[in-house]
Amino acid sequence: MATTTQTAERKSFSKPDETRPFDKGKLEIVNVGGTMIGRATFEPGWKWSECVKPIANTESCQAPHLGYVVSGRMKVVMDDGTELEFGPGDAMSLPPGHDAWIVGNDQCVVVDFVGYKDYAKPA
Predict the structure, then answer these.
(1) 8 A C-beta contact, residue 102 and residue 74
(2) What is the pLDDT of residues 56-82, one digit of tens each?
(3) Domain limits, the chain
(4) Which one, of 52, 56, 15, 57, lies nearest residue 32 by Cα?
(5) Class of 18-112 per CATH?
(6) Which of 24, 67, 75, 89 could make an SS bond with 46 (beta carbons 3.0 to 4.6 A apart)?
(7) CB atoms within 10 A of CB 122
(8) Please, which residues have CB within 8 angstroms of residue 107's CB and are 6 or more apart in sequence?
(9) Which residues, listed in sequence order, are joined to residue 108 by a DSSP beta bridge?
(10) Which pTM was predicted?
(11) Are 116 and 29 in contact (CB under 8 A)?
């Protein structure tokens, strides 16, 4: 019987492997356990279609997201018109095809386990 050896690993967002700044926010990435995890910080006034669309060059966000909202509030409108609002403690699953913006005057922090591989990454 073959055995697989796994190694315990620890990474901190205080020293991310990569940081991608964008207008009114930033994305910090750590690679841990063979997985890329992103922590995005969105400042009040951030809107995907204004702050990240110029980097992505797509009509709407085409990244899927599976994440957890740590703080702040975010409104999402899917390309089909479906509207959702997320706040602290909410888990989210979003398929590609949406716009999003920050609601209120608080910074919004989201940890994403799927969708930040190419997010805010210049082509």
Answers:
(1) yes
(2) 999 999 999 999 999 999 999 999 999
(3) 18-112
(4) 15
(5) mainly beta
(6) 24
(7) 9
(8) 41, 42, 43, 44, 71, 72
(9) 42
(10) 0.91
(11) yes
